[in-house]
Design brief:
43% helix, 442 residues, binds ligand SAJ, single chain
């Protein structure tokens, strides 16, 4: 069986290693972090993802995979290292170039090097060139190079690794063919074949398109608040048009991808990316606007209640999106951290998806239960639309100020058209408190 060496054992590299091993490849996971490697080899998955622990245990027992800090010869090298941006928002490809240095030590004729990390347009060609210089082998002839951008959604990685269509962009046709042989073994959806530069652009465009759509939704929210409307209702009803599909407003855009990748396009195409820049600004500003609106509500509450005690603000959700435990670049976390510094605020945090010790380390207090939080708080700040929060009942919190940035309280229109008439205008019931306290700030 062919040997695969996956470089970078993070959110993409480790699950990819496990799937490749499950589908029969002999897999080596290479990472420079000794501690991470040691933990993975004793079946500690290091990252949080459904099913990962069992899969890792199983694959280790079958001896189809092990992690190492020593690079090894392989038929396929998969590069899955982080590509963050620097302070000036320019892509930091240093981990990719480190991976190239490592591969160059063991690259043999016929091997295929696949870059899965998200990179600026032109980086795959550069990678091929660097490998040529270091090995004196010829790219596209002696060894093959392609970009096959990862597309998986944290929280659903194992399903999407197998069921998402993939783009394979080679530096030449032979590279595409060789790379296809690898993905064919486990991808059940279509493989779309192209050149490396197109594949790079496709990946960046995918995530930028989502960023722009969310910025649009956030602007709709700002307009709706000003007009005294519920943005979630405006968007839901606009989306009833067969050719309109707007995303949801939120307290900001988090994670490691959507908020980063547009900058790779902006860096390469500064004159053609006004829309992307504006979207980034709108989405980056949102958490700050939420902080400002919350502080304003706290002031109002103190005035109304002639109260000198800190106002109890309940934060519902800290993660970067619903139903996962991932806090990476989370706007909700950013908001909570800023509010926790305000002496007028006693912050209560309810986050059922994150370990209590983590919350204690971050805030010096444990997560409060949903029920207690609702009871004790003066202001409720809905930031993440976690499913367990959906049992919230607006009647039981009618005496509180509510700032709902994730649509937790919004009850969608009933789909059946006959019933729709009967229930109208029920959907507007819960919006009043949101508008009172957000208007003018967004
Ligand atoms: N968000 C909104 N409104 C929405 C949808 C999302 O505000 O309607 C926010 C989320 O709350 C979150 C952020 O956007 O803070 C990003 O979440 P996400 O679900 O849009 O995306 P990620 O970052 O988890 O994963 C994305 C995915 N890309 C696309 O959907 C185009 C995934 O397929 C990619 O593999 C991943 O980026 C990546 O690694 O590039």
């Amino acid at each position: 069986m062919k040997k695969v060496c996956v470089i970078g054992l993070g959110y993409i590299g480790l699950p990819t290693s496990l799937i490749a091993a499950e589908y029969g490849f002999d897999v080596i996971g290479f990472d420079v972090d000794q501690d991470r490697v040691a933990r993975i080899n004793i079946a500690d998955p290091v990252i949080e993802e459904p099913e990962i622990k069992e899969k890792l245990k199983n694959i280790l027992a079958k001896k189809k995979f092990h992690a190492t800090t020593k690079i090894q010869e392989a038929d396929y090298f998969i590069i899955a290292v982080p590509t963050p941006f620097l302070k000036d928002k320019k892509a930091d490809l240093s981990y990719v170039w480190d991976a190239v240095d490592s591969i160059s030590l063991v690259l043999k004729k016929g091997a295929v090097v696949i870059l899965e990390s998200t990179v600026p347009v032109g980086a795959t060609a550069q990678l091929a060139q660097k490998l040529e210089q270091k090995t004196l082998l010829k790219a596209g002839i002696d060894f093959f190079v392609a970009h096959c951008p990862e597309r998986v959604l944290p929280g659903n990685i194992f399903h999407e690794l197998v069921h998402n269509p993939r783009i394979i962009g080679g530096i030449n046709e032979e590279s595409v063919d060789q790379t296809k042989e690898f993905y064919k073994k486990f991808v059940k959806a279509s493989l779309y074949l192209t050149n490396a530069t197109t594949a790079e652009m496709v990946k960046l465009v995918e995530n930028s398109s989502r960023d722009v759509s969310i910025a649009f939704a956030n602007q709709i929210a700002a307009m709706a608040y000003k007009a005294g409307l519920n943005p979630f209702e405006v968007i839901e009803l606009a989306n009833k048009h067969p050719r309109v599909d707007i995303l949801n407003p939120s307290c900001g855009v988090g994670g490691h991808c959507i908020a980063v990748d547009p900058w790779f396009l902006i860096e390469t195409f500064p004159e053609q990316t006004q829309l992307l820049k504006a979207a980034r600004e709108i989405n980056d500003l949102k958490p700050l606007q939420v902080v400002k609106a919350t502080k304003k509500s706290v002031e109002e509450w103190k005035k109304d209640n002639k109260n000198h005690m800190p106002c109890k603000v309940l934060i519902l959700g800290l993660t970067y999106k619903p139903n996962i435990d991932d806090l990476r670049e989370s706007p909700a976390l950013q908001i909570a951290k800023q509010l926790s510094q305000d002496t007028d605020i006693d912050l209560l945090i309810c986050e059922p998806f994150v370990k209590n010790e983590t919350i204690n380390t971050l805030f010096g207090k444990y997560s409060i239960s949903f029920k207690e939080g609702l009871e004790q708080s003066n202001i409720i700040l809905c930031l993440v639309n976690h499913t367990p929060f959906k049992i919230i009942n607006s009647a039981t919190i009618s005496n509180k100020m509510i700032l709902d940035y994730c649509g937790l309280l919004y009850k969608p229109h009933i789909k059946n058209q006959d019933q729709e008439q009967l229930f109208w205008p029920a959907s507007t019931v819960s919006i009043k408190p949101i508008i009172d306290h957000v208007q003018g700030d967004l």
